[in-house]
Every structure is written in C-alpha cells, then in structure tokens.
Design a protein that fits this description.
InterPro entries: DUF8063. The chain has 185 residues and is α+β, with helices and mostly antiparallel strands. Among the domains are: 86 residues, Immunoglobulin-like, CATH 2.60.40; 42 residues. It has three helices and eight strands; from the N terminus they run αβββββββαβα. It has a four-stranded antiparallel β-sheet, with no helix packed on it. The protein has a four-stranded antiparallel β-sheet with strand order 5-4-7-8. Strand 1 and strand 2 form a beta hairpin. The longest helix has 28 residues. It starts with a helix and ends in a 10-residue tail after the last helix. 13% of the residues are buried.
C-alpha cells in the first residue's frame, strides 16, 4: 500500500479519536448535584413551560406584536411580579414592573409589553433568591444561548470538515479517480 494513503488514514484515525475524547469528556463533565426546582402546582396541567414556585406555573406563553401573552396556573391566590427586559442601548435607565394576582385553581392570562423578555417572581421564589424569565423565540434554526464550549465544538467540527475535504481531494488525486487538474498534451 502506498505510504501517503497510510499516512492519510493515520491522520483520520487520530482526528476521530481526539474528537471522540472531547465528546466523552463533555458528557461526563459537570455532573454535580443541583438543587431541585419546585414542582408545579397541584391540580393543574400535567406540564408547565416554567414553574415559578410550588403554587404558580406558566402554562403557555406567546409573543404577539411586542406583547407577551402569558397564561399562569395557580392552586391559590398569589401575587406575581412581572418586569419587561430593559432597553440595553443606554448606559442607565429604569425598569418598569407590575404585580398581578393570579386566581386560585384557574388559568389567568396576563399581557405585558416587552421587546425581548419578561422576568417574573413571587415572594416565595424571592425567598429562594430566584427570579425567572421567558424570552421571545429567535428565528435561528439552532437557538442559543451559546456558551464558549459550544463555540469550541463548532470550531472543531469545522476544522474536522476541512481536514476531511482536503484529505479526500489528496487521496482522490493520488488514486486518480478525479479528472480535475489533468493536462491535455
């Protein structure tokens, strides 16, 4: 067998082994225990988009012309505070918020004007030092937020694609299955 073909096969084997190791390392990294979020309200729907505390959950939400339409379910009367995401184009400003009371054992629909996201919390969630948010869906096929490891993985995948394409062209030229670059004399 030709020495160049063996070298190319060895490079492909090393690249695939390294990327498999990175993938396995990512799957096992960060397997630390996290505190459990509260379960949804009793007697409500079987699943929630977001659970704010053990009594209040977001059943559904949508965005219509810059207005978030949020449907809550609660198993008791509870005050929920909502805040639209601030405009980040200026150095300082104010954040508007309002409180609504969701009714017991029923769905309550709330509308709030916001450009991209809405934060929400109850007194119980603030005791746990947590507030929650929902945001408008983007038009991307693969939606963020992206982390540094996502960027690294994309770069590795792109580099591997380039390596495979170059190696394919080199092998095809060496074996003679390509007609590109032939001279007619």
């Amino acid at each position: 067998m030709n020495h160049n073909v063996v070298s190319i096969a060895f490079v492909l084997l090393v690249c695939s082994t390294v990327l498999a190791g990175v993938s396995i390392g990512q799957q096992t990294a960060g397997n630390t225990a996290t505190p459990a979020d509260p379960s949804g309200p009793d007697g409500g729907p079987s699943n929630y988009e977001l659970v704010i505390d053990e009594n209040v959950g977001v059943v559904d939400y949508s965005v219509e012309d810059g207005v978030f339409v949020i449907e809550f379910y609660s198993d008791e009367f509870k005050s929920v505070t909502l805040s639209a995401a601030p405009d980040t184009s200026s150095q300082s400003g104010s954040i508007s918020f309002r409180s609504v009371v969701v009714e017991a054992d029923t769905r309550t629909t709330v509308r709030i004007t916001a450009s991209s996201a809405v934060s929400m919390w109850t007194d119980d969630s603030l005791e746990r030092e947590q507030a929650y948010y929902i945001r408008k869906q983007s038009g991307f096929i693969v939606d963020g937020p992206w982390t540094a490891s996502d960027v690294r993985d994309a770069a590795l995948g792109g580099a591997l694609g380039v390596v495979v394409a170059v190696l394919y062209e080199a092998v095809a030229a060496k074996v003679g299955t390509t007609e590109r670059g032939e001279r007619v004399a």
